[in-house]
Amino acid sequence: MKEGDSITEVVKEITSEQVLLYAKASGDFNPIHVDAKFAEGSQFGRNIAHGMMVAASISESMSLTFGASWHASGKVKIRFRSPAYPGDTVTASGQIKKILPLDEGTEIRCSVSVTNQAGEAIISGTSSVIITG
User: Which end of the chain lies in a sparser environment, N or C, as judged by fewer CB atoms within 10 Å?
Assistant: First the structure.
């Protein structure tokens, strides 16, 4: 791996079913996510996916790229930029920005993002992982 390399992309379709399952798993039944009539009257005009459900695709991407090291030492700092809607296809991607030697291994810092099918940014941020061994 070297600076400039891409991390593994993860592509997901957001469905209303997934949003409801996430609401059940997380206990977050905010009507903006699960009540179509309520959401129609919101600034978004329709239901939106839970931000953390969408953000999980970044963790999946980092896990596919860095394996157990991600689970042991991964960190992510993100900013939510736009909602994802049921019916959207989102892509988590990123790029290695810096590789730093440390006493305990090598720290790899990445830029990460999630975009929708139109290429619009939904989430942007940074992540880091320490590779040991």
Answer: C
CA geometry: angle at 68 spanning 90 and 89, to 5°?
Answer: 5
Q: Is the CA virtual torsion 17, 21, 23, 24 positive or negative? A: positive
pTM (whole model) above 0.70: yes
Residues 77-99 pLDDT 10s: 999 999 999 999 999 999 999 99
Q: CATH class for domain 10-131?
A: alpha beta
CA distance 86 to 72: 32
Domain locations along the chain? 10-131
CA 125 to chain centre: 9
Give the pLDDT confidence score for residue 133 in this predicted structure.
73
- Dihedral of CA atoms 16, 17, 19, 21 in degrees, nearest 10, equals 170
